[in-house]
Design brief:
231 residues, mainly beta, Porin, 11 strands, 0% helix
Length: 231
């Protein structure tokens, strides 16, 4: 048996994202994030759109549990050139925040149950779904540029890495799914909102095992944290 030749595809994309965490009581809140991603050459066509919703339980102000549903639309691609392919995800997550002086760290562990619609050919979806689990670990580190730490109209430096691991009966060659490494800047637009932008490298192993994607991403994310509790 001969070893398969490793094939790596290099792609350039733009990712746009909106995140909202709304807290309506001491213990409960709502998670929302929306994404749109281009396909290649930064601005050519679309690769994916997604909306994720969840219910959040606050164990403490710095620790929270979330669970919910995400709908993902994969726009036409190599094996479904004339149709979009939907995916349904159930997800559960624990997220926690830590402060080291004025620097901040955010981490989460997320479990996803992924139901991806089967594809018959370039023009038609098949019946049923392919299923697998995916585990994600996200580490986010923020270094403010000002002495007082994070405040409105201030800037910070961001380092972020997220590892994705696949598992389940259908996973054979790509238990490692992908790694996302991000370097960028954060501008605190207000007391409860900020804009983050910068460069992300996404390295992904495809299901064949010997095929990889190296994706250069210009990432622009806007975050809002809304607290509806009475002061």
């Amino acid at each position: 048996m001969y070893a398969q030749t490793k094939q790596t595809e290099n792609i350039n994309r733009i990712w746009l994202g909106y995140f909202n965490q709304l807290r309506f009581s001491n213990k409960w809140g709502i998670w929302t994030d929306i994404h749109l991603r281009t396909k290649e050459n930064f601005t050519d066509n679309l690769s994916q759109g997604m909306i994720r919703l969840g219910l959040t339980y606050y164990v403490a102000d710095a620790t929270k549990l979330s669970f919910g549903y995400a709908y993902v639309n994969d726009y036409p691609a190599d094996n479904h050139k004339n149709i979009s392919a939907p995916e349904h995800r159930i997800w559960q997550q624990i997220q926690w925040h830590t402060k080291y002086g004025k620097n901040r760290v955010m981490q989460y562990i997320r479990l996803e149950e992924r139901y991806r619609h089967k594809i018959k050919n370039d023009d038609e979806l098949a019946d049923g779904y392919n299923f697998n689990f995916r585990l994600r670990y996200n580490l986010w580190y923020e270094i403010p540029f000002v002495k007082n730490g994070i405040e409105p109209h201030s800037w910070s430096f961001i380092v972020n890495d997220e590892l994705h691991i696949n598992f389940g009966e259908k996973i054979v060659y790509n238990y490692f799914d992908q790694n996302r490494f991000f370097l960028g800047l954060k501008y605190q637009t207000g007391k409860h909102s900020n804009l983050q932008f910068g460069y992300m490298n996404l390295f992904q192993q495809l299901s064949a095992g010997n095929k990889y994607r190296n994706i250069n991403v210009l990432r622009f994310f806007f975050f809002q944290n809304i607290d509806l509790r009475k002061k």
